[in-house]
Amino acid sequence: MNNDLQVRPKPKFGVSDDDEDEMLNYQELFQRSNLQPSAQVIREPKIKRQQSTENEDKKRKTSNIDLTETTVMRPMIVERDVSSTPIQLPKPINDSFPQAKYRGNEDDLEKITVPNVKKASMFAKQMYRDGKLKACRELEEKKTPVQNEKMSHSKLLTGCGLGEVTGERELQRIHNENVERLNSMNEKEILEEKEKLLKSLDPKLIAFIRKRTKQEGEGLIYRPSASTAQPMDIENQKSTAVPVETDSRWLHMDKVEYEKLEWMKDLPTPSAQRAPDDSNPDGVPARFDFKGNLMSRTADISVTAALHHHGEEPEAAGYTLEELFHLSRSAVLQQRVIALQTLANIIRQAHTGVYDLDLQLPLIQKLLEAGIVFLIRWAMDEQIEAIYMVAVECLANLIAPRKDEEILSRTTHWPCGYYEPSLTPAEIELGEKKSESDLTDVEILEQDLVKCLFRMNILKRSVYLLNGMKLLPALTSTITVKNIFHILIRMARHSMTCAHQIFEEKQLMDFIVQEFIPEFAIPNDEGHVYGHLLPEALKFCRVLANHGSTLTYNLIHRYELHKRLGNHLVAAMNRSLSSEDNQALAELFSLWRVFILQGQLADEFGSLIPTVILPFCRTCIQQMPNMMISQLLVQLIALFDALIIHITKFIMKHRNSSEGESNAINWSHIDGLFDIILTVEKQTLIETDEEIDLDALRTVGLSCLSSFLIGQQLLTINLLDLPLKVQQIRVQFLEPLLRSTSINKLIETVKLTTATLPTNSTRNLPTLTQTNISSFGFLNALLRLTNIIYQIDKSLPSSKKFITELMLTKNSEIVVYVKKMLNKLTSNSIRKVPWFEQFEHVFLFQFVQILYQEKSDQDLPSIYYEILLALLPSLLKGYHFLAQETFKLIFFDLSYWKRSNETELADLSLITNESLHLASNQSITLSSSQRTLLYERAIEHLPSLYTYYKNILHINRSSVDLNICDIHFGNLFQSDDLLKLNIHYSHTLLDITWPYGLLSSLYTNVLTIADENQRLELILNSLRFVYILEMKHSLILYKTLNRTTRFSMIAGIYLLGSDTFLEKNIADYLVAFLKCFNEQNLLQKLETKSNVQSLMTFFDFYRTLVDQYEACSFGDILYSNYLLVPLQQIYDIQLRKQVWIEHSTVLRYLRLKPDQILFPLEHFFAPYENDLEILRYYAQVLLNGTIQKSIQPFLYMIAVHHLNGFLFDQTRTEQFNLQRTIMKTIQSISTNDKILHDELVNYKTFSREGPVVFATLPSIRVHWLQKLLQ
């Protein structure tokens, strides 16, 4: 390894001692080397001063130079011109010397006392005696409190808007009145008025005034005038306020400065409220102790706790974040260490969620915004050990919460627990920058903290610190080295790109492997320079290997890890295990398991099974029950599970090739593991008082037995022996386990352990933190084994019903949990999925799948189908097979969809029209029987819809890579790609709008299909399934999708071509959907200001719909109905302007009659229109004949209704002129278009037959009409 980059530079010549002889040697060597000096002295040549011109001389003469305000040396001296100054002769005197001034007798001056002056000089006393102390009196007046000057004008009123002269005069008048009123009141009255004002005014306004006054350096405190002031007892104050006794011998201590001794007084009583001038009355800054605990502001804490300091609130114990940031940059070493250590403890506590209920704002996010990352990075560059060690701890606590790694380690042996999260934030937004390299560190930090650490060269700094800590004692450096590993592991979890970037940092990787994973194991008694940190190094390698087979292969072959791991494995098994050995061996099994799943080191491990592994297992079984042994067995059986999966996949892939025969490991190597695993599982049935993790051991055993049965069934190996093994598992382990009391207690906790989102996860630093861990790992393993047993022995589901009897008892908590999860999955249309919720998804699917097998002749309740539908948009990427099996269960159970009870199917009794004629001259029947027939035909297409959705959503098994989830559900298929063990922590597999298939892609032209028949079939398939869901009132539509999206997805059919909507089959569904929406009152509840999910804003969508109608609608009645829905008065005026004003040509084609509207008319007429622009346009289109009763009867009735309401509205006095203008214009056309005139004047109300008019106009309207026409 190149050591030049690891150490600080040393002197180039000689040794490092600095005695005189060596310094002379340095000098001699330097002279011999003939090196050029690093700095040279260059003398500047003298520059002759140029002669100045006459104009410049004049400028110098006229310039006024103040030599007291400049230090610049003038280039020449210019004499003052005194030619015009008159010459005065000196006055003749008689004496040779000036007369001396007489100050009187000094004894007389001793008796004189100058008022308000403690120790006056002799000169001052003489001036006072002679009455010449006017300047002193003025100075004394200036030293008096300037409160009168402060109150010379108002500090709140500015007079803005009153003019410069008038405003100043009014302000002075108001101020004088206030001062006079205050002078007329005593102190008690003033305080009473102050309390009244404080209670009546808004606290925010009071805080604003105080903050403004504080910034100006002035207070709103009234001080009584000089006439009411009381003399201060200075002597008494001296006797009580002086905290120490003075001695006359002390130099300069004859005068005590009390203001400098304020800090030595007793602290005020702690208060829950801050000072009255606080700018934030809703909350106070949080204070913490050195361990990161939140401090109470009212707690009486002794000053000996060292939590009080001289800040703004000396009585409050603890430190605020602002104060800790300030101390972390202190010049005092101890203050910097304490500040960073306290910040590290606060961050650690924040990730556990202890502050969530007490703080108003998320603490981690605020720390990141305040720049704590830069603060830590600067501290890591220090050369002082105490500083960089605590900085490393602070960074590790910030980016790598301990709870994340603890829970991940507890779920890694669960079914589907092989997946580990990629904690990648959202993609970095470049903005106006061209590339990521153009962004500043702050801009990158705001979006991705880990990438910012790479930018800061944290890897190079880490290897330098690791190398530098070699010289430190192991007890001192161990914690810091562990923290560095925590940082590196979290950075590796970021993404595959970051993992490769760490691996390519060769100096770091070489150092870690050589120092922490040596070729031969080091016994504990021999010690290590860093302590025994092999588990951390193995875990770091495991996280790197999770990112793909390429990285795994390079990691193994660059450092020959197979030899190193084999040596450590054999050495650990041949000696008595300590706690350190136990942890290292568990991590070694975990790393080897990942290598095997990535297709590496399976042969090497298989060669160790008969000679090393099986004897070790037998020894462990003999020592059971034991906590350390059980932890090792959990990881070892998980390793067996991975080995079974690898061999099963390898044999299936190379079944017909010679490579499979030449493989060093085959099924015979693992056939003997079955008895070992079953024996271990039977040991878990033994009740013991020793505290061991039986659930983990049972979970991994159930999962491994399932994989063994799946592999033997798929490979058709010893099929006659398979039923015997099933019976052996069932009788010896499964049935006794189901009868145990511990299982019943475990099931009771299911309702309380649903996963939640981490509270301290930020945009640039996602986390997984959970407050607790659920028991779904064991339940998933139990359901998985039960499902495999049911597949092998077909008679068991109807006879035994293991799961129904266990989980669906009278007081079952599982049903409560299912209802709770259904509400959770459908609670929000855009829901973030917690990472650990994936295990609940697996549980729910397997639970419903087994209930479906055990139901016999009974129908499965609808809630289980709803929970499966709600699961689909929440599945994380990687669960393709789970989505496929869910679709299969939903689409192929026709009995559920054929149930037509009143509570599930939509009401079909609200149909008013029997038929509807389209633009293609086809007639559509709207009877209830026709809609029922549509529903039944859609159900008949469900099997084909399964294939359709499976293909378009890319969950077909032939289109995805093999993953662990597939194997855990008993499915294998040939694939050239290896297993993928990393998926994004929040990316879901399906979009929330998946029921609509590819419609959204067609709307946005992302997908184009040339074949017309294929295109129509695709649209029909989506309409069929969505119609089934609408008729069944499915929660997947009602709760997860907003109403705007449901309407827009169907109305968007009109955007797919000029004649698509004219197809009879599609038109049937469009009519049926419109009636469904009407019955659900959806057409009156659209959120028109929201977005159409997965598309665009509703306004943009409607504008596109209007353009399409204008281009190729042919005046279609059904299209017109969809277009009219957003024109109801309850929606935004901008939508009506789109049709009436901006696309006025559309009005020519909207020729609907009132009885052709397929939903209620009321919302087109109420409330009355109040927008003047559109009212003018109503009058314009009516008067110029654009809208005519015979051509556009419905639009005509709308315009007449709102225009009549505006004209006869007597409450709009400010619009009287416009009403008069329009009415006179209408009166002028009465001779040419009497029908329009009469209906505008005599209009009464609307109906489906047309406008209803007054036979005789009411008198109040007659009088108002006469007033308008005057």
From TrEMBL:
RPAP1 C-terminal domain: residues covered: 286-350
GO BP annotation list: transcription by RNA polymerase II
UniProt keyword Nucleotide-binding present: no
Primary localization class, coarse: nucleus
Region of interest called Disordered, as start-end residue ranges on this chain: 1-20, 31-65
Keywords: Nucleus, Transcription
Keyword presence, Nucleotide-binding: no
InterPro entries recorded: RPAP1/Rba50, RPAP1_C, RPAP1_N, TPR_RPAP1/MINIYO-like
Domain named RPAP1/MINIYO-like TPR repeats: residues: 1010-1214
Family the UniProt entry places it in: Belongs to the RPAP1 family.
Protein name, as recorded: RNA polymerase II-associated protein 1
Organism for this UniProt entry: Adineta ricciae
